[in-house]
Amino acid sequence: MSETIRRMKDLPSTHLLGTGTPMCSGCGGLEALHQIYDVLGENTVFVNAAGCMTLLSVYPFTPFRGSWLYTAMGSAPAGAQGVRDALDILLQQGRLPPEDDLQVVVLTGDGSAYGMGMSATSGAMDRDLDFIYICYDNEGYGNTGQQYSSATPHGATTATSCGSRGYPGYKKDLFSVWSAHRPSYVATVIGSEPLDLAKKIEKARDMTGPRMIIALSPCPTGWDYDPKDSVDIGKLAVKTGVWPLKEYENGVVTHTRVPRDRPPVEEYLQRQGRFAHLFRPERNEELLAEIQDRVDHYWEEVV
Amino acid sequence: MASRVLGTALFRSGFTVQDAPKYGAERRGAPIFSTVRAARGASEGETINERGIIHRPDLVVVADDTLLAIPAAGTLQGIDPDTVVLVNSRESADTWRHRLNLQGELLILPAGSEVEDRADLPHIGATCAGAAACLLGVIEPEALTTAIDEELGPLGEEAVAENRENASAAFEAMIAHRGIVTEGAAVPAKDYEPPAWVELPVDDASIAAPDIRAAANSVQVRTGLWRTLRPVIDYDLCGKCWWVCSTFCPDSAIAVEGDKPVIDYDHCKGCMVCVGICPPHAIGSIPEYLAQQREQQTIEEGEADGTDPADR
Ligand SMILES: Cc1ncc(C[n+]2csc(CCOP(=O)(O)OP(=O)(O)O)c2C)c(N)n1
Ligand code: SF4
Ligand code: SF4
Ligand code: SF4
Ligand SMILES: [Mg+2]
Which of A91, B165, B170, B245 has its CA 20 to 30 A from that of A268? Predict the structure, then answer.
């Protein structure tokens, strides 16, 4: 794909990612991945840390059209380094024609990206590794039954934070942590905003160096809502200001969407069972206000 | 949940019990199953030494009949002519006996026809446990309801009451077959059938490593079987927008062919995302079982009047 994506009409209407995957029905992560794959194209090799998406390629089936490599949760970027080095050596020795070169793409969940894989990712950015990192962020350890991760939002119920106040910690600001390494590119995306996503992935595709993408991934199973609501919930995450769409380049952070007239965050929260305890048996005004204040504060700093 | 209720009911009836769920991947669409073993004579200190899956079950309860078509689910693994199979289904016992080519007893626990979407089936676990308790013939209704109180208490009174009601109704529905399940003879370890191993000679890594060269061959997996609701595009209403449905479908199951979006029913998982996001509301939904009944009718009518369904 080489034409530039400017309008909705430019988005692909046939898709590269194979059907028949074991992801849950209505998986927001899969929605983002299939949109991303359409833009990146077939000349990609995926390096995938343990998580829901490692089940995409369960022998003998794969939805990808190229190679895929499984790594331990903490070491996908290290795996990517090995693959990149091997490709570079083959290119150098003339054993791989330049047109057959592959884009190395790390694919991990938030458990890896925000937690276990941080050090390997930091090292890869230090070495200016030429790769794309895609974190599909479903805000917990989805594959093992949604235990909390450092991407879990404050107050959410997870398998390991089930009291009346939910998860006591705060979602780590991975965008800032990654940007502080000054890689080529960092962006947040979401499958429910496909045009914004496609433009960013296209930009990343045409750059070199570390290109880091975080895709918020509404997860019917882990967030406890009906699969049909995946897109609605994703759109609400953006509208209410919970998930800012932004990019980092050359030391500058730009918001690609500044939501005006943000509806209350409640509208996003009450659609998900993981926040039900904030509303029933009675409203937890204090916690709701705290969550809203944090979002308001974020946007006050932006504009 | 069903296995815990049944296990506790057996325990309350004086059995030594072992019940265990078996998890694979914890995601929607993944088959889940659980097992219950019971031995008479808890008071004599009878213990159960076996562990893991049951190789030769006396009773198999299938809560979702769509699982029967999925080989990986292994629903009927290890059954023999003495095994009783209970299927929660809208179809008849004859239909299933024929489809599965079963010699043993097959009973139907009628699936609620008022429930359009099987994924919404309320309290199916308790319903299955209630029916199973009756078929075993060794559990009194009181032990069943006590088990539900104990196991579901933390979910609140409302949940307990509904589950009690459903379990009792299922128990009653099976009353004509009470005690139909017979206890199979214990299978000594030495008599276990060895798994159907395939002997593989040691090959060079370049041959033996799992090396898939087929692109996107996951299309061979028919995830359309997961569907309980079916999205249907009304082409008179479809505005041929910028193919919103195709972009948003998480499963890449809608492609634009020529100038219209076409749903790939072999793979659509029935999430209903497309139904909600189509701008002119051109995508409706119908229960999958109704859609299949209609398809079947069309085929039969075609056979009756001699036309090929593809021509109509
Ligand atoms: C070092 C290590 N610890 C634990 C596991 C078990 N494990 C497999 S997947 C998973 C959850 C991963 O969470 P995340 O990265 O967010 O991906 P998701 O499952 O949400 O897609 C865990 C804990 C593992 N594979 N490796
Ligand atoms: S658990 Fe969540 S992220 Fe994992 S496959 Fe299911 S919907 Fe997707
Ligand atoms: S979203 Fe609706 S209008 Fe647009 S192509 Fe799909 S069916 Fe047609
Ligand atoms: S119901 Fe879900 S899986 Fe099926 S076509 Fe619509 S969006 Fe795709
Ligand atoms: Mg996760």
Answer: B245
CB A17 within 8 A of CB A63: yes
Going along B197-282, which residue ranges are E strands? 229-233, 254-257, 260-263
- Interface check B70 vs A, CB under 8 A: no
* Interface contact B255, partner A, CB < 8 A: yes
Least confident range from A221-225, A271-275, B21-25, B172-176: namely B21-25
The structural domain count of chain B equals 2
Closest Cα partner for B27 from B285, B281, B280, B269?
B269
What residues of B are in contact with residue A201 (Cβ under 8 Å)?
none
* Domain shared by B180 and B248, yes or no: no
pLDDT at B43 over 90: no
Residues constituting chain A = 303
Residues with CB under 5 A from ligand 5 (ion): A 109-110, 138, 142
Q: What is the ipTM of this complex?
A: 0.96
Structural domain including B82 reads 2-186
Mean pLDDT, rounded, for B165-174:
94
* CATH number of B7's domain: 3.40.920.10
Domains (range + CATH), chain A: 2-302 (3.40.50.970)
Residue B244 alpha carbon, nearest atom of ligand 3: 1
pLDDT at B305 over 80: no
Output the CA–CA distances (angstroms, integers) from residue A208 to A33, A102, B166, in the order listed: 20, 12, 61
**pLDDT confidence of B115, banded at 50, 70, 90?**
low
Those residues of chain A that have pLDDT short of 70 are 1-3
User: B219 and B119, same structural domain?
Assistant: no
Would an 8 Å CB–CB cutoff place A6 in contact with chain B?
A: no
pTM of the model: 0.88
CB of B245 within 6 A of ligand 3: the answer is: yes
CA distance A126 to chain B (A): 33
Q: Are residues B13 and B104 in the same domain?
A: yes
CB A222 within 8 A of CB A139: yes
